[in-house]
Structures
1.
Amino acid sequence: MGGFSIWHWLIVLVIVMLVFGTKKLRNMGADLGGAVRGFKDGMREGGDKAVENAPQVAGGKTVDGQVTGKTETKA
């Protein structure tokens, strides 16, 4: 109970092939493969950009911030 045998999966596969057809299933597989490939490429490019945009280290301490305006100092 609760487990599917190979025969159950084969019957489901035959029904899916009859409903959708092999050409449509092939197109869906190609689309899914292209999406996965695009995701992997995006993750690879994102990793490279993260290294480029890493905060700079000055004097052993991490410097990270944003300049919002000029400040005047009085001596």
2.
Amino acid sequence: MKIVRAIGIGTVIWALGVSFYSLSFLISILEDAQQQANLALFVIVMPLVWFGSKFYYKKDNRTHGYWIGQTFFLVAATLDALITVPFLVIPNGGNHYDFFTDMGFWLIGLEFIATTTLYWYARVYTKSRKSV
């Protein structure tokens, strides 16, 4: 696995995800702005991780998608702990414990891993099987 590449792509995915999450507060569609932001993040994570996986696999096709997804998610969780929670969550009355024990956080983590694994099976594994 090209770890620096995976960390870099994971950082970009996290930055875009936080941006979409924050921008979703500006457009009022649902009554509960927090629920709306979480829903927006859930929806945007799939294409972000899919394109991140596509970009990653341009240079490496040996690493299973599970490991790439886990790396993307660990990068996002680390950046959440260092940046998102202190600057976005704590000022609004939250804390690290509430953030990391929220079911939505873990659902999005599962989404990271499932999307990269699905990408690997759909785009990488099938091509490697055809060339054998």
